[in-house]
TrEMBL record:
Pathway: Amino-acid biosynthesis; L-tryptophan biosynthesis; L-tryptophan from chorismate: step 3/5. It is an enzyme of class 5 (isomerase). It comes from Sphingomonas oligophenolica. Keywords: Amino-acid biosynthesis, Aromatic amino acid biosynthesis, Isomerase, Tryptophan biosynthesis. PANTHER family: N-(5'-PHOSPHORIBOSYL)ANTHRANILATE ISOMERASE. Its EC number is 5.3.1.24. This is N-(5'-phosphoribosyl)anthranilate isomerase. The keyword Isomerase applies. GO terms for molecular function: phosphoribosylanthranilate isomerase activity. Signal peptide: none annotated. Residues 5-207 form the N-(5'phosphoribosyl) anthranilate isomerase (PRAI) domain. The gene is trpF.
Length: 211
């Protein structure tokens, strides 16, 4: 089973290059302004220009309006739109209007949360199972929180999917073994501080997938 990875929340040429060099299949550019991983349109444009064609550029959004999507897609040359907080109907509308592969992030804490993923079956192209952040948290993800992977046992996924939430070098191998994920998404797990990616951690994480 071949496992690929998205390195999310990249904001410097050095860490972007490390992700590409290490074999990441996707890189993530965060367009949610409150996030410490936020990139401006100008920075997104510079970073996107470094990404080869075989690596997909993913834009991360939290309940975005169409103007933000228009500008971010152009600046980041986005191949994929990743949505947090969008309803199934809004997700479907974005997917239709912008004609991009569209991922719906599903915040997971209980099996009921997973059951809600079925509502996106005709609205998105892929589901991203992420850990539900604590009540009152400022961000919808990227906080190093993981959910109980056993919740995925026996679950009939309505779409292709990726695993996110609290992954790092110490647990990604176990996560893949338990969930059979073929695409994993990491952000805080390859950082030295919130929003500060580390070249060595990115390299080690990607090497673990190839082992």
């Amino acid at each position: 089973m071949r496992v690929t990875a998205k390195i999310c929340g990249l904001s410097t040429p050095e860490t972007l290059d490390a992700a590409i060099r290490g074999g990441a299949s996707h890189i993530g550019l965060n367009f949610y302004a409150p996030s410490p991983r936020y990139v401006s349109f100008a920075l997104a444009e510079r970073l996107a220009a470094r990404v080869p064609g075989h690596v997909a550029r993913v834009g991360i959004f939290v309940d975005p309006d169409d103007d933000l999507l228009d500008r971010a897609i152009a600046a980041g040359q986005l191949d994929v739109i990743q949505l947090h907080g969008a309803t199934p109907s809004r997700t479907a509308a974005i997917r239709t209007r912008f004609a991009r592969e569209t991922w719906a992030a599903i915040a997971v804490k209980t099996r009921t949360d997973l059951d809600g993923a079925r509502a996106y079956a005709t609205a998105a192209d892929r589901l991203l199972y992420d850990a539900k952040t604590p009540a009152g948290a400022a961000l919808p993800g990227g906080m190093g929180v993981r959910f109980d992977w056993a919740l995925l046992d026996g679950f009939r996924h309505p779409l292709p999917w990726a695993l996110s939430g609290g992954l790092d070098l110490t647990n990604v191998t176990a996560a893949i073994r338990q969930t059979r994920a073929t695409l994993v998404d990491v952000s805080s797990g390859v950082e030295t501080a919130a929003g500060v990616k580390d070249v060595d951690k990115i390299t080690a994480f990607l090497k673990a997938l190839a082992a």
